[in-house]
Amino acid sequence: MPVALSQRDVLSIVGGVHHVVDDRQKALKSRLQHFQRLGFPAGINTGKGKPAAYGARQVVDLLVAFELLQVGLWPEVIVGVLRQLGSELPEAVGRVRFGEVRERALDVGMVLEARALSDLTRHYGDDLAIPHTAKIVAMDQVIDRFAESSDEHRRIVLINVSAMLNAAITVATTAVPKKADQLKEAIFYWAHNFEPTDYGD
After folding, report:
1. What is the pairing mode between strands 156-160 and 133-138?
2. What is the reported pTM?
3. CA–CA separation, 28 and 8 (whole Å)
4. Which is nearest to 65 in space by CA: 100, 27, 18, 103?
């Protein structure tokens, strides 16, 4: 069940989720273009004179990316984190429930172990690994897992993937009303039919 959203559609959804005001839309667009210069998200059909077309995977990737921008991560780090997360993201999305059938106790989250000072633990010239590691967890298990973690794992960033996607679909019903249902169906289809090889698994 494919969907093809324009850049304007995507900006309308992301902007609505993050309450971006009208006179700051250009700044929002510049952040999206920064990701594009990094080759993210993968799979956008672009070419000379050809408009970008965003499918379910690209929309979800950008939704998560902008959530991570909100907590202050750099775009380059965000791209590395999401590539590292691989197929765990669509697997998590496949567990998300929408609208009236959503049970908050079953929400799915992404936990990011924040280590922004990790570059100070390496000598100059050493390879720079991705300083953050992400995992998908059930929201009702977050506190227990964090409480059981070692002293070395004491900082986390938590993104409620279920809440994020529900917010995006709610915004889409007014931002892109003719495509909102199609987007929800496309996300559901992608999450249950993705190819692990697309993520190097």
Report:
1. unpaired
2. 0.86
3. 11
4. 18
The residue that leads in pLDDT, 130 or 18, is: 18
Tell me the Cα Rg of the chain.
Answer: 17
Is the pLDDT at 118 greater than 70? The verdict is: no
Say if 159 falls within a structural domain.
yes
Please report the pLDDT score of residue 150 as a whole number.
57
Residues 42/35, Cβ–Cβ less than 8 Å? no
pLDDT digits (tens, 9 = 90+) for 15-58: 999 999 999 999 999 999 999 999 999 888 666 667 789 999 99
Contact residues for 139 (Cβ-Cβ < 8 A; gap 6+):
104, 105, 106, 107, 108, 109, 160, 162
Residues linked to residue 159 through DSSP beta bridges, in sequence order: 110
In a domain, 201, yes or no: no
Among residues 1, 4, 3, 26, which one has the least CA distance to residue 15?
A: 26
Instruction: Tell me the average pLDDT of the chain.
Output: 84
Overall number of domains in the chain: 1
Report the C-alpha gap between 6 and 78 in whole angstroms.
Answer: 22
Q: Is residue 1 part of a domain?
A: no
Specify the pLDDT at position 127: 56
Return the axis-axis angle of helices 75-85 and 56-70, rounded to nearest 10°: 130
